[in-house]
Amino acid sequence: MKTTSYKPRVVVIGGGTGLSVLLRGLKKQPIDITAIVTVADDGGSSGRLRCELQMPPPGDIRNVLVALADTEPLLEKLLQHRFVNGNGIAGHSIGNLLLAGMTEISDGDFVLAIEQLSHVLAVRGRVLPAARHSIVLHAEMEDGTIVSGESVIPKSGKRIKRVFIDKENVKALDDAVEALREADAILLGPGSLYTSVLPNLLVPGIVDAIRESRAVKAYICNVMTQPGETDNYTMEDHVRAISDHVGDSLFQYVIVNNGHISDEVKALYAEKGAQPVVCKGEQAAGYHIIADNLLVYDKALRHDAARLSQIIIGLLGAKV
């Protein structure tokens, strides 16, 4: 009788492009992956489908499914294709429409729709929304004003003090809570701090499950700041913002880039109001800092998914 070797259980929390980049590297490792994804998006195609069909926003889920899927490049390109023309269809991606259609076929059950589409795409892992229903993200700015809407907050032109959600009738998906409690490693980020990472932590039940878990826990800091969201933030500022929202000691490690960024690339990003996230070398409230060259550049700066994966596998080995 054959016995299957144990695969460490890794849970990744976030949304946006950063999470997808990380998952493309992790899916090549001998691990069991669960991705917990934000449902706060309210802009673009996701926002339209969320409003018109009363369903959770599919965009971040789509990106994660594509990142974890075992598909041909042409199918991936098709899922990410966004219509340019067409009355009512312009701006929608095919992947978003597939999730919307699958949700209707599943009698409005978005979680079941994700599961079924995961089977169709041969997804290597499990993809779960942080909550069963959409959440509305609000931000209190430093001048005391309140801005509502995930897509609107970075465009306000004001510095964010804190973000919060309407918690009435919102709770963490049971499967997400179970995955966190049973995880061997929990990874937070990378992704937009206030609009992709923190919205997941604000869902009731998520932070409690992370704290109860015996997993090794790490926060992966962004490579660059984001205009309108984390202007001039250092690594320590990112960590402090998380602690201010959910308390200290949520994770043990902070993974941050210390690789060189050329002056030419810096200038390109400076034109958009972004700059490298630097690490001052402080202990960041007692967290262990793992600094490494985590950069790749191909039209845009991204985390090196292969190097990140090596670091994470190393943390899993240390836990064992």
From TrEMBL:
One of its GO terms (cellular component) is cytoplasm. GO terms for molecular function: LPPG:FO 2-phospho-L-lactate transferase activity. It comes from the Bacteria. Keywords: Cytoplasm. One of its GO terms (biological process) is regulation of cell shape. The keyword ATP-binding does not apply. CDD domains: YvcK_like. It is found in: Cytoplasm. InterPro entries: CofD (IPR002882), CofD-like_dom_sf (IPR038136), Gluconeogen_factor (IPR010119). It holds the Pfam family CofD. PANTHER family: GLUCONEOGENESIS FACTOR-RELATED (PTHR30135:SF3), UNCHARACTERIZED PROTEIN YVCK-RELATED (PTHR30135). Required for morphogenesis under gluconeogenic growth conditions. This is Gluconeogenesis factor.
